[in-house]
Amino acid sequence: MSLDLTELTRFGRALEEAHSLLEADRKRLEQRCDRASRADGTAGGPTQTLYGVTLMSGAMSQALTRVALAAGYSALGMGERAEHELVTARMYPVGFPSGADRMARPLGEATVQAMELIRDLGFFDAEISIAVDVALAAPQATYPPADWDDYERQRRSQAE
Whole-prediction pTM value? Predict the structure, then answer.
């Protein structure tokens, strides 16, 4: 069984574009983050903002790698391995869009573009689109929380 290489190409290019946008914001933030501000670990602080965009960039890089492997395996006639890589690539990406929960508002223009691109791509489960919309609408950074006990209570009540 071979995968649709045209579709994989479309996904791969979009993932690469999102990764490039996030990397551009990461580099911009890294230049603005001086050594003294890196000690600030509060939500929306320079350290958490830089960490958040780094998480999101890494998630897109990993998904892109899996799509490239799926395309390669498919081209080689290794359908089972190709399918496995594609399934893995579509798993909920760790750090995307949750990295935005750490980031100062307003989010960088490139970060917003990357998040909207992934939201509209249709590659990941619909949960990602909802999570992106929530992250984009958040008026401020929410992680790490100022009150861990309250944060855990909220998480437990959401799970119920």
Answer: 0.88
